[in-house]
Amino acid sequence: MRPLPSRRRNHRGISLGLLALCLAAAGSLQSQGVSLYIPQAAINATVEEDILLSVEYSCHGIPTIEWKYTSNWGVQKIVEWKPGTQANVSQSHKDRVCTFDNGSIQLFSVGVRDSGYYVITVTEQLGSSQFGTIMLHVSEILYEDLHFVAVFLAFLAAVAAVLISLMWVCNKCAYKFQRKRRHKLKESTTEEIELQDIEC
Predict the structure, then answer these.
(1) What one-character DSSP code corresponds to residue 85?
(2) How confident is the model at residue 170 (pLDDT cuts 50, 70, 90)?
(3) Contact status, residue 64 vs residue 102, Cβ threshold 8 Å
(4) What is the 3-state secondary structure (H, E, C) of the chain?
(5) How far apart (Å, rounded) are the C-alpha atoms in residues 69 and 134?
(6) How far apart are CA 160 and CA 148, in angstroms?
(7) pLDDT at residue 78, rounded to an integer
(8) For residue 186, how many other CB atoms are within 10 A of its CB?
(9) With bands split at pLDDT 50, 70 and 90, how would you rate the model's confidence at 22?
(10) How far apart are CA 167 and CA 10, in angstroms?
(11) Left, alpha or beta for 158 (phi > 0: left; psi -120 to 50: alpha)?
């Protein structure tokens, strides 16, 4: 009857050892996990603007970074790369995206169609990964901006009209002044001729 307690002790020792091993493994996985920081989760932009989708990550080793774009038209892969290597850019975003080693990307000359959710996934060599999302809203140039441009152009046209009118008035005045001067010269020359005739 005494062997039973020793078996229980052995089972307890094995289960405590397994528990300690699992906790150590979990701790090491946590210490080697990926952390991701997104300073600005929502960005508003206008058409033809260059946009920086800024992120920062930390992990052990060199991770794989992937950006995808989700919108009403579906999910689309933008770019995938490892820091220090050449990026694999999709055909739809060729010459429109620039990658940075900290995981950020820059989109050039965005349009309304670029509005949507941009998802970054950072995957560590051991397999742990972390993802984050940035919402981008691209709008046309605001009506107030167009109104301001129209008012400014109207102001410039009015100034140009005033300047043209002033130039026309100055030209008329100069023409009248020259005409009067010529008339006076003619009168003076005729008076001189008459005086010469009288003296003769």
Answers:
(1) S
(2) confident
(3) no
(4) CCHHHHHHHHHHHHHHHHHHHHHHHHHHHHHCCCEEECCCCEEEEECCCCEEECCEEECCCCCEEEEEEEECCEEEEEEEECCCCCCEECHHHCCCEEECCCCCEEECCCCHHHCEEEEEEEECCCCCEEEEEEEEEEECCCHHHHHHHHHHHHHHHHHHHHHHHHHHHHHHHHHHHHHHHHHHHHHHHHHHHHHHHHHC
(5) 10
(6) 18
(7) 96
(8) 10
(9) very low
(10) 110
(11) alpha
Query: Is residue 129 within 8 Å of residue 36, measured between CB atoms?
Result: no
Average pLDDT of the chain, as a whole number: 81
Counted residue by residue, the chain has a size of 200
Is the pLDDT assigned to residue 75 strictly greater than 50? yes
Q: Which residue has tokens 């901006």?
A: 145
pLDDT of residue 16 exceeding 50: no
Q: Which of 36, 78, 60, 177 is nearest to 124 (CA)?
A: 60
What's this model's pTM, rounded to 2 decimal places?
0.57
Both tokens of 37, joined, read: 């920081």
Tokens representing 124 are 């560590």
Residue 61 pLDDT > 50, yes or no? yes
